[in-house]
Design brief:
CATH topology of one domain: Immunoglobulin-like
Order of helices and strands: HEEEEEEEEEE
CATH class of one domain: Mainly Beta
Number of helices: 1
Helix content: under 10%
Distance between the termini: 109 Å
Shape: rod-shaped
CATH architecture of one domain: Sandwich
Length: 191
């Protein structure tokens, strides 16, 4: 226990001696502060489990006695958008349409952008299976806002050999991830 106890018996002590003893005890306690100091315990660091929020502090002025009181605004991160392409129907060249060798084919599909991302110049259609039929294996994906329908169009050329051809395509987002329904064309080349 850290309390000084002064025991003075029946002896007669002058006021001066009593003041001297009290001053000496207080001085001794002042010179040894660690004896009565609170004990510190280590605090274990636990990392946060939620992403940090950005706190913006902007000074504001008021006409009251308090001036330049900061306004605190909490900023929550914006979640990334999602990419979804939904096939609706063929607009031209139904499956198994007969075409002549070397014929130009204007294939169009109606699709819906059911995601939350707007398709821009960074979005592509890529050949994922079958014959390219005279096109490059990568095409621009028609720009479309989230929640709208779009017409996708690729100009093909029928191969010269008579048989059935199929060309399947997939949408790809800006970071190279495939998404949504695949679309395809299937034709019968006949002489």
């Amino acid at each position: 226990m850290c309390r000084p106890w002064i025991i003075i018996g029946d002896m007669k002590t002058s006021r001066f001696l009593l003041d001297f003893i009290i001053a000496a005890v207080l001085l001794a306690l002042a010179l040894t502060p660690t004896a009565c100091a609170p004990k510190s315990t280590p605090t274990i660091f636990i990392p946060p489990t939620q992403p940090a929020q950005l706190i913006l502090i902007t000074p504001t002025s008021t006409s009251s006695a308090l001036t330049n009181v900061p306004t605190i605004t909490l900023s929550t991160p914006t979640p990334p958008c999602t990419n979804i392409l939904t096939y609706v129907r063929d607009l031209t060249i139904p499956d198994d349409t007969a075409v002549a060798p070397g014929q130009s084919i204007d294939k169009q599909w109606l699709v819906t952008n059911n995601g939350t991302c707007n398709w821009d110049a960074r979005y592509r259609l890529k050949l994922i299976n079958g014959d390219a039929m005279g096109t490059t294996g990568e095409q621009a994906l028609y720009p479309a806002r989230a929640g709208t329908q779009a017409t996708l169009r690729i100009l093909f050329t029928a191969p010269s050999t008579a048989e059935t051809y199929r060309s399947a395509w997939q949408a790809f987002g800006p970071s190279g991830e495939a998404f949504g329904d695949a679309i395809y064309i299937q034709i019968n080349v006949a002489p």
